[in-house]
Design goal:
Elements (H helix, E strand, L loop, with lengths): L3 H25 L10 H15 L15 H20 L16 E2 L2 E2 L1 H32 L13 H13 L4 H18 L3 H21 L6
Antiparallel strand pairs: 1-2
Length: 221
């Protein structure tokens, strides 16, 4: 299970999840959310460090030769569609658990350092880390343990559905997460380059971040 190829794709994601769990535990032990805001910066720094240290293992991140403008335009359009779904699929039954959110304000003044870190993390780091885990590793590994040999276009329905379902329950907005998981899966299978779902994911998170800042809907973070 944990050979080098698997580990290099699991470790950054695992570190990210560890800090999420740590935050939940600290909150349950009486810490205030405001006291933990810098934990996100630590989390992103650790993930970036792991991705950089293991960058040589990510053969799927080599830039695809001959990729078309249509591939990237489709990915960005899909990312915007997912963003629209994300801010609208918020009815009670579409939400699982309770999201603490991320409020960067100090006495109604926005801490722009925290906002910048959050936006960079969400738009540039998380898409790479998550797509390496969910699409490149897990979806193909479910199809065959030698996942690097699996052509994304030939991933089976079982692996497709399990990955989308797990991606859904990893988010409090589970229905929006399911929709996003399906879209990103399809992009990877259709384009056969991981940069397509990475770009779509980055577009979703980037536009969502700008929208959150503009509307001050901090709960979406």
């Amino acid at each position: 299970m944990l050979d080098r190829a698997n580990f290099c794709r699991i470790a950054p994601f695992g570190a990210y999840v560890f800090f999420m769990v740590l935050e939940d535990v600290l909150l349950k032990f009486g810490w205030e959310a405001n006291d933990l805001r810098l934990l996100y910066a630590v989390k992103i720094a650790v993930v970036v460090g792991l991705l950089w240290a293991m960058r040589g293992a990510y053969s799927e991140l080599r830039w695809p030769i001959g990729s078309s403008f249509r591939t990237w335009a489709t990915a960005m359009t899909a990312g915007i569609v997912v963003f629209v779904a994300w801010i609208n699929l918020t009815v009670d039954w579409m939400v699982m658990g309770e999201s603490v959110g991320f409020d960067p304000r100090n006495n109604d003044d926005i801490d722009w350092f925290l906002v910048t870190i959050r936006l960079i993390g969400a738009a540039l780091v998380v898409p790479v880390m998550e797509e390496l885990f969910w699409r490149s590793f897990l979806m193909r590994w479910l199809d065959h343990p030698n996942f690097l040999a699996v052509n994304p276009a030939q991933v089976g329905l079982k692996a497709f559905c399990i990955t989308a379902a797990l991606f859904a329950i990893a988010h409090s907005l589970w229905l929006a997460g399911l929709f996003a998981g399906i879209v990103y899966n399809l992009l990877y299978m259709r384009s056969r380059t991981l940069w397509s779902p990475i770009l779509a994911h980055a577009t979703t998170n980037g536009v969502l971040g700008v929208w959150i800042i503009y509307t001050e809907n901090w709960g979406f973070w």
